[in-house]
Amino acid sequence: MIEDLQKKIRDIPDFPKKGIVFKDITTLIKDGAAFQQVIDYFYEQFKNEQIDYVAAIESRGYIFGAPLAYKLGAGLVIIRKPGKLPAAVEKIEYDLEYGTDALEIHKDAIEAGKRVLVIDDLLATGGTVCAACQLLEKVGANVVAIAFMIELKDLNGALKLPRNAKLFSLFAY
User: Fold this and answer.
1) What is the band of 151 on the pLDDT scale with cuts at 50, 70, 90?
2) Is 10 marked active-site?
3) What is the mean pLDDT of residues 128-157?
4) Closest-CA residue to 129 (of 161, 170, 90)
5) Active-site residue flag, 60
6) What is the predicted pLDDT for the residue at 35?
7) Smaller CB count within 10 Å for the chain: N or C?
């Protein structure tokens, strides 16, 4: 049951800084049956969406992206921090609450028009996933869906995401 899975997520107060309650997913994913259920929930949401690629955002997005891509019969594309990919890349810089950051993808990662599901572990303010969507569109992808294990609703990150993409969060806080 979904509520039983949610109980496996541990709260860590004051991490990474005072006043933040970190949602620790390691306590859920270490349980093989629980992890399998999470992947199955994602699969049920997207099995009829004709997904060509799952684009996973570094690094916790990889945890969910790889098994989901396998289950969907889709390719896996990784979005990384700068300097980590070996071939020619497209890069996007974006603002954070405390500065700037950047993401990269191989220029030849996705053929133009292919249907892509973007996945990450957590939606907070939406800056990273919004940048990832823009990066994917830059290489010609059609972002049709965006998924998260956890969404922090009070931070309104969903407002930054493409309106035409299906949005799914397994757990909302």
Assistant:
1) very high
2) no
3) 97
4) 161
5) yes
6) 98
7) N
C-alpha 66/C-alpha 132 separation (Å) is 17
Residue partners of 22: CB distance under 8 A and separation at least 6: 11, 12, 13, 15, 16
Q: Domain boundaries in the chain?
A: 47-172
Q: How far apart are the first and last CA of the chain?
A: 17
Q: Provide the pLDDT for residue 98.
A: 76
CA gap 133, 130 in Å, rounded = 5
Q: Which CATH code fits 47-172?
A: 3.40.50.2020
Q: Over the stretch 91-108, which tens digit does the pLDDT of each residue have?
A: 999 988 778 999 999 999
């497209």: which residue's tokens? 90
Are 44 and 37 a contacting pair, CB within 8 Å? no
Confidence of residue 45 (pLDDT cuts 50, 70, 90): very high
